[in-house]
Amino acid sequence: MPAEIETMDDVLVAARSSLRGDRVRLRELRDADLAPLQAWWRDPEVAVFNNQVKPQPDALVEEMLRGWSRNDAAGSAAFCIETLDCELVGHAALFGAEAQNRCATFGIFLDPARQGQGLGSDATRLMVRYGFETLGLHRIELSVNALNTRAVAAYEKAGFVREGLLREKLYYAGAFRDQVIMGVLAP
Q1: ∠31-35-40 over CA atoms, to 5°?
Q2: 3-class SS at 172?
Q3: Quick one: DSSP state of residue 30?
Q4: DSSP letter string over 136-161?
Q5: How does DSSP classify residue 20?
Q6: What is the pLDDT along the chain (187 residues), one digit of tens a residue?
Q7: What are the E-state strand segments in the chain?
Q8: Quick one: 91 exposed, middle or buried, by C-beta within 10 A (0-12, 13-18, 19+)?
Q9: Which residues contact 70 (CB under 8 A, 6 or more apart)?
Q10: Could you tell me the CA-to-CA distances from 88 to 8, 66, 93, 98 in Å, in that order?
Q11: What is the rounded radius of gyration, in angstroms, for the C-alpha atoms of the chain?
């Protein structure tokens, strides 16, 4: 549970901590972020797990990233992920918020060269905390390719539990793949 907030200093401390984890911080999208984010989005190691196996024009990917990062929809938020020494390493979003149900969907992608270093786990925990404490969400959900065991483990570390399996939901590389449905509830 968040600490009790009684003063303006408490508000400022809470605001700063809501965007900073042990290894990463969340921040706004900047124009200079677009080129590396687009490259990572297109990288086969990222694209295959985001079901984006067909190339998209720069303008389309740029508008997608800008749209997510506008942060103008209630219950939704998107941020760039950077290390504490200010290196851009990815992007994360809570989207598709359902106001009545206080539920949103989580998505994340990282620089393939920085995967497996705990940065995604830290960013996921931050986004979950932000969703519950700042946006007032009750539930955050996601779906992930069952073969993406590294992502499943990161999500479980952040408190997500497996809620179901959509058998042979995804098709690529000549075969159907299972999709895991996961969710986490506010404490």
Answers
A1: 130
A2: strand
A3: -
A4: --SEEEEEEETT-HHHHHHHHHTT-E
A5: B
A6: 445 667 655 555 555 666 999 999 999 999 999 999 999 888 877 766 666 566 777 788 889 889 888 888 887 899 999 999 999 999 999 999 888 999 999 999 999 999 999 999 999 999 999 999 999 999 999 999 998 898 999 999 899 999 999 999 988 778 899 999 999 999 9
A7: 24-27, 77-83, 88-98, 103-110, 139-145, 161-172, 175-185
A8: buried
A9: 78
A10: 30, 16, 15, 30
A11: 16
Q: Are strands 103-110 and 139-145 parallel, antiparallel or unpaired?
A: parallel
How is residue 68 written in tokens? 């997510």
C-alpha distances out from residue 128 to 2, 31, 112, Å = 13, 26, 22
Per-residue DSSP letters for 58-69? HHHHHHHHHHHH
For residue 108, the cross-strand partners are 92
- Residue 185 makes CB contacts below 8 A (sequence gap 6+) with 138, 139
